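Example 3.2
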Amino acid sequence: MAIATPKRFTLAEYHRLTELSFFQEDERIELIRGQIIQMAAKGTAHEVCITRLLRELLKLLGEQAILRCQSPIVLLDDSEPEPDFSIVQNREDEYLSAHPGAADVFLVIEISDSSLSYDQETKLPLYAESEISNYWILNLPENCLEAYSEPYQKPTGEFGYRMKRIVLVEEAIALPYFPDRQLHLTKVFPRQIDIQGAS
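Structure, written as tokens:
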């Protein structure tokens, strides 16, 4: 008896489906290792963190790089994730001709609540294999930043990062490639407000 296997898509096939309006405009999907993945719904803490981080990164970067929010990056020949943020090199056409590839990327950032295990176990090895030099996870359940660097291949053949740094919410971290630009995490993580006391 034949065993059914899931269809895996190339980037070209994925783009063709998009051109043919196969997906709904408001559908949140991404291509990961040939599979079309439905992205997790975003909670309020995730949205607050996006808003606060967007504000801070724009102030820190100025014109030194391009900040992309929930926009595609092209990896390998079968993946096009849409991380919450990517900081990429300046380019004259601002990537009108094609989405950024791994060589264009300074930093990828994912904001993780319900998606934490997915970002740690599925996206992390993909980013490492693609030689994304710096990958950050804003870990909302644990209120910390996981900063990964130095991608490498393990003896088992799997990919990961040699360095993992935990940055706590009251601390700051320099942006990769911009050592004079410090991101203070108190300005990024959602603030816990005593609603009863504030009323």
